[in-house]
Write a structure and sequence with these properties.
β2 and β3 form a beta hairpin. By secondary structure, the protein is mainly alpha-helical. The chain is 64% helix and 10% strand.
Length: 135
């Protein structure tokens, strides 16, 4: 059995040592490959089919998508590169399945950075309002 699952990459900055700005930038950078890959409607449709069915062979994906075999293979390769899908071999077939845990972790990291950023903005705004009212 061939597995394409990989462990999440460690970034050069971590939450504990990075400034909020660095953390936010790293969080956005971590999500860019996901966004770039899923902006293509055909890849998004393939991913939705995999989520709907749990796992599918390339032939089943071709039948569902009505794309050519080379096009489906190309889209699957790109989805594999960003770790959104994985596959296992069954005989001569590759069975693909969605692998969303890593992408969800990257997206959660972005949500956390944005939430932290908004909290900083809110605190600065409240401080300015307080200073204006006391001034």
């Amino acid at each position: 059995m061939v597995s394409t699952q990989r462990q999440p990459q460690q970034t050069s900055t971590s939450v504990g040592t990075a400034t909020p700005e660095q953390y936010g930038i790293e969080a956005f950078k971590g999500c860019m490959p996901i966004f770039e890959t899923l902006k293509d409607e055909q890849r998004l449709k393939i991913l939705v089919q995999l989520i709907k069915h749990g796992s599918m062979s390339v032939g089943q994906l071709i039948d569902e998508s009505e794309l050519s075999p080379p096009a489906v293979s190309h889209h699957l390769k790109l989805l594999l590169q960003v770790h959104i899908v994985s596959y296992k071999k069954q005989g001569t077939k590759r069975i693909y399945k969605p692998e969303l845990t890593r992408a969800a972790a990257e997206l959660q990291r972005l949500v956390d950075a944005m939430t932290e950023g908004q909290a900083c903005v809110d605190a600065m705004h409240a401080q300015r309002m307080k200073e204006e009212n006391n001034g």
